[in-house]
C-alpha cells in the first residue's frame, strides 16, 4: 500500500489537472535519457532471480542444503547485479542533470515531478531489494546448521514471498518509468 | 544493571547526536537530522536488547522468562508485558497531551493574548493533537489488544512475539523526537501537517513527520500481528460467531491499520523528501499538487478514526453484557456492522475536503457514503441499548463509563451529520463545531471506553481491586467536565469561531472562561484516576480470578494470569455471552 499511495499519486499528477495548470512541459520527451536498455536488462535480471528463488524454496523444502545454497547464492548475486545496474542508471540521469534543483531542472521546472517520482519510487524499490538481499544472505549463512528444521523451510518460504513481491513491484514500475 | 529501555534510549540519543554532527559537516541540517534519526533507531534497538532477540529469532531459540518489575523496561516478547508497556506509554502521552490542552485553555480563558505567541499556541495545539491521536490509536489496540486478545482467544502468546515487542519499542523514539520538536522551532500545522505548510520552516516540523512515520511503522507491525494471531491461534471451537466481540473489533481495526497506514506513510515520506531532497510533490510551481497531500492524508486519517472507535465499540459491547447479566443483544448483527464499517471507512475520506477546492463532483458521493456509516453505527447503539434493556444492571465504574460512551457518542454521531452534509459543512468547516464533534466521538467514545477497559481489566492485570468510590468520582467529574467543556463549543462554532486560533472576540469571554474552568475539572478527574490506580496497585485488596462473573476465557485464569497463560489449550462451545441461560 506504500507503493499504492505513490502510484496513485503518480497517476493523479500525470493525468490530473494540476500539471497542465502551470503550462510548462511536465513530462520529459525529447532528449531524456530513458535508459531503456539498462532497465530491460534489470527486468530480466529480477525475473531470473525470482526463478532461482523458487528453486531455493523448493530445495529448502527437501532439506537439500547444497542446492539451496547454490540457488540462494544465484538469487543474491542477481539482486546485487540489479542494484549495480540501477546505480549506473542513476549516474546516467545525474550526469544529464536530471535531479532536483540541478541547473537544468530549474530551467525546466515542470520536469521536477517526473524525476521526483522516478527517484523516490525506484529508490524505495531499491531499498526493498537491499532488505531482500540481506534477508536472503542471513538465511544462506544459517543454512548449513538449520536446513533440517521445518521452521527454517518456512522462513525461506516467507523470504521467497517477499522476493516475489519486490519483483512484482518492479513489474509495475518498469512500464511507468520506461515505456509509457 | 540499567534496564534495557533506558540503555537503548541513552545509546540512541548519543548515536543520533554523533551521526548528526558528523553528517552536518557535509549536508544540510534537515538531511543530517533525518539520516541520523533513521541510523540511530537500529542502535537504540540493538543496545536496548532487540539485538539479542533478533539473534534468538535467527537461531530459533526460546525467549527466556524475565520476572520482576524490570521486565517492563526490557525488550520483552510476552504479550502481557507488551500490553502493559503500551498502556503506560499511552498514559504518559495522555498526561503530556493533557497538559498541552490545559495550557491552551489557560491561554483561551480570556480574550487577547495572555502569555504566548500565536506561533507557540499553534505548536502547543499541534502537540496536544498528535499526542492525543497517538493515545487514541494505541491505548486500546496496543494496550488491551495485546494484553487481552490472546487471552480471550485462548492462545499462549501473539503469533509473532518479537515483532510485537518491536512494535512497542518503536514508540519511545517517536515520543522522544516529538517532544524534542517542541524545542527545535515547533510545528504550526496542527496534527495534520498539511503541505505546503509542512514542506517549509523549522526542523521541528521534520521531527514531527519522523515521529508520525515511526509510530505508523509501529502501528502496522502491531496490526499485522494481531490479525495473524486472531486468524490462526483461536481456541478449538471458536468459530466466527463465537469470537468475543472485543476480539472482532480488534481484528476489524487491524484490517484498517494494515491497509490504510502505509498510505499515509507514502504522503509523509513525500513531505520529508520535499524537505530533504528537494523533490516537488507538493510544490505546484514545479509540477506538484497540494490537494494530493490531503487526499493521501485523509485516506489514512479518516480510517484512523475507525482505528480509534471500533475497539471502543468492541469494549463497550464486551462490558455491557457482563454488567447487565444478559446475552449481547443482536450479537451477529453487531459483528457484521463492525465489518461493514471497515469497508465503508475506506470510501468516505474526502468529506474532510469539501472546502478544499477538490473536484466538485466528488462532494455528493462522499456525502452519501459518509451518511451510510450511520447505519452500522446505529446498529451498535441498538445492540448496546438492547443489552441494557431489562437487564440486572450493576452500576460499577466500567458500566458507568460504558453508558457514558453511549450518551456521548450519540451527541458526537448526531452532530457529525451536519459535517457530512456539504451545505452545512461549508459553514461549519474549521470552526470549533468540528472540534466539539471530534472530541465527542473520540474522547466521549474512545477515551471513555479506554477508562471502562482500564477499570474492567484492572483486577485481571494487577491482581488487585481498585477503589470503587474513587472510580465513581472519576467518572462523575470526567463526564460532567467533558460535557461542560465541549457542548458550549458547538455554540461558539456555529457562531463562526474558528478552531486553532489563540484569540477570540471579547463578547464570547464569559463562555470561554466557563469552558476553561470545565476543562480543569477534567484535569482534576484524571488526577483522581491516577491516584486511584497508583494506590490500588500498591494496596488494593487481592482480586479473585473472576471478580465480575464474566464468561470470556481470560477470566478462567488467575489474576494476574500465569506466564504461559493456559496450562492446556481451552475449548469453546458457546458464545461468551450466555448470561441468564442455564449452562
List keywords for this structure.
heterodimer; A: 180 residues; mainly alpha; Four Helix Bundle (Hemerythrin (Met), subunit A); B: 583 residues; 2 domains; 17 helices
Strands of chain B, count: 0
Shape of chain A: elongated
Quote the average pLDDT of chain B. Answer: 91
CATH class of the largest domain in chain B: Mainly Alpha
CATH superfamily of chain A: Cytochrome c oxidase, subunit III, four-helix bundle
CATH architecture of the largest domain in chain B, by name, is Up-down Bundle
How would you state the average pLDDT of chain A, rounded?
83
Percent in helix of chain A: over 70%
In CATH, the topology of chain A is named Four Helix Bundle (Hemerythrin (Met), subunit A)
* Number of separate helices of chain B: 17
CATH overall fold name of the largest domain in chain B:
Cytochrome C Oxidase, Chain A
How many structural domains of chain B?
A: 2
Structural class call of chain A reads mainly alpha
Question: What is the CATH architecture descriptor of chain A?
Answer: Up-down Bundle
Measure the end-to-end span of chain A: 23 Å
Protein described:
The complex is a heterodimer of chains A (180) and B (583). Chain A has 180 residues and is mainly α. Chain A has one domain: Four Helix Bundle (Hemerythrin (Met), subunit A) (Up-down Bundle). Helices cover 81% and strands 0% of the residues of chain A. Chain A contains seven helices and no strands. Chain A is elongated and about 60 Å long. The two termini of chain A are 23 Å apart. Chain B starts with a helix and ends in a 44-residue tail after the last helix. In chain B, helix 6 runs antiparallel to helix 7 and helix 8 packs antiparallel against helix 9 (290-324). Helix content of chain B is 67%, strand content 0%. Chain B folds into two domains: 1-76, no CATH class; 77-556, Cytochrome c oxidase-like, subunit I domain (Cytochrome C Oxidase, Chain A), CATH 1.20.210.10. The relative contact order of chain B is 0.09. Chain B is globular. With 583 residues, chain B is mainly α. Chain B has helices spanning 4-24, 29-58, 79-107, 118-152, 161-169, 171-182, 203-232, 245-276, 290-324, 331-345, 363-372, 374-388, 397-420, 422-428, 432-462, 468-494, 509-539. The interface between A and B is medium-sized, with 36 and 33 residues.
